[in-house]
Amino acid sequence: MNPALDSAAVSQETRDAVPMFFPVSIAKLIILSFCTLGLYQLFWFYKNWCLVRAREGVDIWPFWRTFFGIFFCYAMFTKVREQQSRLHDSPPLPAGALAVGWIVVNLLWRLPDPYWLICFSSVFFMVPVQSAASRINAAVAPAHDQNAKFTKLNWVAVVVGGAVFLLDLIGSFLPETGY
């Protein structure tokens, strides 16, 4: 393990620190992304831009950076990579390749049935980013809540959104009846 990320060597001041990026477990990120039909990814971007604004004191609008996510995802992925390099965490995050992959896969929603379902796999381009963000958060705020448990609202999203996703999936493979 990288000594910079060893929580035993971290001061009490660092233990009380706020995480640099939105903490969420990889499993929760993937499950909620699928069950909310991709809306959780927007929530992830929004929460991260809010943390960037608070931490850096920059005059940005997290809502608009989220709304125009295809234009700002590279900037967010780069923010994670920059913090990763400050902590000497390696290998460096391939922010450009991940951003291009995320954008391209998200744009595949226009494909015909059932190929448009590929767009839901865009979350897998966020997994390395969240993994790096989690390591950064563990280094700067070892005692932070890692957001791995599902809340009641998360479970509602899983049940309702999961049912909608399942119906979309089934409907995409059913033959057209011509009615």
Structure commentary:
With about 180 residues, the protein is mainly α. It has one domain (about 20-170). Helices cover about 60% and strands about 0% of the residues. It contains eight helices and no strands. It has helices at about 10-15, 25-35, 40-55, 60-65, 70-85, 95-105, 125-140, 150-175. Helix 2 packs across helix 3 (about 40-55). The radius of gyration is 18 Å and the shape is globular.
The helix tally amounts to 8
Percentage of residues in helical conformation: 55-70%
Rg of Cα set: 18 Å
User: N-to-C terminal Cα separation, in Å?
Assistant: 61 Å
Which sequence of SSEs, written as H and E, runs from N to C?
HHHHHHHH
Q: How many separate domains make up the residues?
A: 1
Biggest β-sheet strands, sense, barrel: none
Number of extended strands = 0
